[in-house]
Amino acid sequence: MHFVTREHIHVDRIATAWAIRRFVDPDATFEFVPRTRDISRVDGEPFDIRGAELSHRDGRCTFETLLEKYELPDPALRRMAAIIHGADLPHQEGAPVESPGVLAVFDGVRDSISSDEERLRLGSAICDAIYAYCAEAV
Fold first, then answer.
1. Confidence (pLDDT) at 98
2. Where in the sequence is the domain holding 77, given as residue range(s)?
3. For residues 124 and 138, what is the distance between their CA atoms, to the nearest angstrom?
4. What total of structural domains would you count in the chain?
5. pLDDT at 36
6. Strand 29-33 vs strand 2-6: parallel, antiparallel, or unpaired?
7. Are 102 and 83 in contact (CB under 8 A)?
8. Which of 17, 18, 75, 83 ranks highest by number of CB atoms within 10 Å?
């Protein structure tokens, strides 16, 4: 499958792309487009773009929406989703204690790497580590 998201990816889009490759389609490809791109004109499955089905919904971040859409009930993924949600929406109360640290790491990735492909590569390694941490915790 081919997925399309906004350029300058950060925590939620990186985690969502990681989960797509890890649990939905290991051969998935990604395209990064400007925020203003009309999703009706993209060739692929849009995510975290205004108007896309796979995006923020009902108080959930895109990563959480992905877990619902693809029916991924893994308890470690659910724990990770709470952490990603807290990192993506840091002003909401009740975030897990890990969320600020995860946000800081992804801020570093965003601020030090200009290529979305490289951000996804490095961010995926970070997501592997977060998932392992969450698997151990549950």
1. 97
2. 2-137
3. 21
4. 1
5. 83
6. parallel
7. yes
8. 17
* Both tokens assigned to 99: 């969320």
Q: How confident is the model at residue 104 (pLDDT cuts 50, 70, 90)?
A: very high
CB 13 within 8 A of CB 122: no
Contact 12/84 with Cβ under 8 angstroms? yes
Q: Mapping DSSP to helix (H, G, I), strand (E, B) and coil, where does residue 3 land?
A: strand
- Angle of CA points 136, 15, 31, to nearest 5°: 150
For the segment 29-84, what is each residue's pLDDT rounded down to a tens digit? 999 998 888 777 788 999 998 888 999 999 999 999 999 999 999 999 999 999 99
Q: What is the β-pairing status of strands 45-46 and 29-33?
A: unpaired
Residue 115 burial (C-beta neighbours within 10 Å; 0-12, 13-18, 19+): exposed
Residue 77 three-state SS:
helix
CA atoms within 13 A on the CB side of 97: 0
**Pair of tokens at residue 62:** 């895109």
